[in-house]
Amino acid sequence: MTVRIRAITLGFALALAAGVATTAQAPAPFKLGTFQRPQAPQTPFVGVVVGTTVVDLRAAYAAIGTPALRNAPADMKDLIARYDQGVRAGILEVLAAVRRAGARRPAYVLDLAALKVLPPIMYPTTMMNVAVNYAEHDIEMARVRDGALNPTPTAGLAPPGTTSAPGIWERREGDKRWNPFMFLKAAGAIVADGEAVRIPPKRTLIEWECELGVVIGRPTTAAAVDRAMDYVFGYTLENDMSDRGGRGDMRFGQDWLVGKSHDTFAPLGPFITPKEFVADPGKLTVRFLLNGEQLQEGSTSQMIHTIQEQIAYGSSILSLRPGDVIATGTPPGVGSARTPPVLLKAGDRMECTYEGIGTLRNPVVGS
User: Fold this and answer.
1) Is residue 229 domain-shared with residue 258, that is, in the same domain?
2) Is the pLDDT assigned to residue 306 strictly greater than 70?
3) Which element (helix H / strand E) includes 357?
4) Are residue 69 and residue 185 in the same domain, yes or no?
5) Which of 31, 181, 277, 306 is most buried as measured by Cβ atoms within 10 A of its Cβ?
6) Residues 111 and 197 in one domain
């Protein structure tokens, strides 16, 4: 046990020495999350993830006590809102203090494996999800849209009669894509990495959608496309769980509440990667594994509408706040479109991975 503790401490020190806090301009990558200790006090806290360790920011601020470290983030929303107004600098100061401590690991440095990982944001005010934002996903979903208002696949091309939506989405000359489509996902459906997704009673057509989550960093209303990235804080993962069983009628078309927002239908996390550590979110590889078998593979470069366009579209309808999340759509490979269909059952294990962002793992249980 002593050897293991020393190895973890040394590994953390080496990670920091490799550049975590070398300069305020270009630190080595770290992630951010929300955690809970297994013993008292069990108050959730925000932490900086470096390798297999977590720095408790609240405890670190109190222990170090320099003038710049007197107002620890209360939660992830507070951290995001104040990141560029001192919190980022505070994080780097804390990591520098840990590096200087060397093998004398401070008490505010904890083993990730000893903590309960909570949803990184508890909870977004608004969660927007983009429907069918990959051309191949539109093609495969045509097989399971019997009775829908528009069952014909277009691979993301605008159907005849498509026009601009004044004040929301103006179609540019030569743009052959359909207009963006978003829906709200209930924040109450969020569960953390490692928590179980529960199949609702008597619902049998349940599947996954592995998606990149864009975390908003600044308040925005009607963001311009060419300025949209200014409002991004970072990136996380969302598994946009779906119930394809319908509501027994087509009253008002598809029921997005039934389809998307059952309890536990929004696994989120495990952490947030600040945007400064993601060179190009439009070129990330994606994969989804079910019980170890890869069923989804793709790249964010295949999106129909870019992250910038999604932010512009969504914020033209509903103002976005720090900590809000936009889930950007899923590549092809969902279960209901397969022959035969692959639908979730109790005992299944899901893994959603985006390159450089992380892996979100959730088991499936019955009702």
Assistant:
1) yes
2) yes
3) none
4) no
5) 31
6) no
Which pLDDT value is given to residue 139?
A: 81
- The CA distance from 4 to 105, in Å, is 13
Of 95, 118, 141, which residue constitutes the final position of a domain? Answer: 118
The separation between CA 58 and the C-alpha centre of its own chain, rounded to angstroms, equals 23
Higher pLDDT, 7 or 336: 336
CB 180 within 8 Å of CB 156: no
Instruction: Give the up-direction half-sphere exposure of residue 51: CA atoms within 13 A in the CB hemisphere.
Output: 19
Question: Where residue 164 sits, what CATH number does that domain have?
Answer: 3.90.850.10
Let me know whether 42 and 137 are in one domain. no
Residues 303 and 310: their CA atoms lie apart, in Å, by 11
User: Nearest 5 degrees, angle CA 325-CA 214-CA 114?
Assistant: 80
CA-CA distance, 282 to 302, in Å (whole number)?
8
Amino acid at 211: E
Rg (CA), the chain: 21
Asked if 210 and 332 sit in the same domain, the reply is yes
On whether the pTM is more than 0.70, the answer is: yes
Which residues face 169 on adjacent strands? 165
What span, in angstroms and rounded, lies between the C-alpha atoms of 235 and 287? 16
C-alpha–C-alpha distance, residues 329 and 294, integer Å:
18
- Rounded to whole angstroms, the Cα distance separating 301 from 133 reads 11
CA-CA distances (angstroms) from residue 79 to 45, 115, 274, 326?
11, 20, 11, 18
85, 118, 151: which is the final residue of a domain?
Answer: 118
Range of the domain at 241: 127-365
Model pLDDT for residues 138-182, shown as the tens digit of each residue: 888 776 655 444 556 778 899 899 999 999 999 999 999 999 999
Residues 280 and 166 in one domain: yes
One domain for residues 216 and 183 = yes
CATH assignment at residue 89? 2.30.30
Question: What was the pLDDT predicted at 102?
Answer: 86
pLDDT of 16 above 80: no
Same domain as 305, residue 236: yes
